[in-house]
Design goal:
alpha/beta; 5 helices; 6 strands; 22% strand
Length: 192
């Protein structure tokens, strides 16, 4: 376990950001439970990566975006090592919002490498408004990993977070130092 990674969880109001975090970290969220609007919460979790290493992740649960609060505060964009863009499969506007968020992230970070996943929630509900095919097309175009989940299925809910932790904490494959050439033995020449 190295440094603590910082992940910003963002999306439109009422799309399930807090429910997802509460369920994945504590395992005690009941679907349909009324939650109060989030201003900002921070959660810390140790997540086992696909390499079997436990990594410490600090999740910033942001206030839901709305017409009166349309943009993610800039400090979140600059501090993050990764982003979870959350939308509800029952709300087309929430899906449009993650597209705007992705553009905002790309513009502010100038395409610097950052791990982004999109998570569609409420897949257990019947009134689906965002088709999986549309979400997959968007994710492929944006080069974002897409997951669709329900807070009722905690095991499936782990997948996006394991992927995120694994991707953000990959060991470096190349040294940052230039390759050193063969060592040359130094000899001294004496003038006698």
């Amino acid at each position: 376990m190295g440094k603590t990674s910082r992940v910003v969880v963002c999306g439109q109001v009422c799309c399930g950001k807090t429910a997802v975090l509460e369920q994945i970290i504590y395992g005690n969220h009941t679907a349909g439970t009324q939650l109060f609007p989030t201003i900002e919460d921070i959660y810390v979790a140790n997540i086992e990566t696909d390499r079997g290493v436990r990594e410490k992740i600090r999740f910033y649960d942001t206030a839901g975006l709305s017409p009166s609060n349309p943009e993610l505060p800039k400090h979140y964009i600059t501090l993050a090592d990764g982003f979870v863009l959350v939308y509800s499969t029952t709300d087309r506007d929430s899906f449009r919002r993650i597209d705007l968020l992705k553009r905002e992230i790309d513009a502010a970070r100038e395409k610097k490498e950052v791990t982004v996943v999109a998570v569609g929630t409420k897949t257990d509900l019947k009134d689906r408004k965002v088709e999986l095919r549309d979400a997959q097309t968007w994710a492929q175009k944006e080069k974002v990993r897409l997951f669709e989940v329900s807070v009722k299925d905690r095991k499936a809910l782990m997948d996006p977070f394991v992927f995120l932790a694994s991707k953000m904490t990959q060991p470096q494959t190349k040294s940052r130092f230039p390759a050193l050439g063969p060592k040359v033995k130094q000899t001294s020449v004496n003038d006698s």
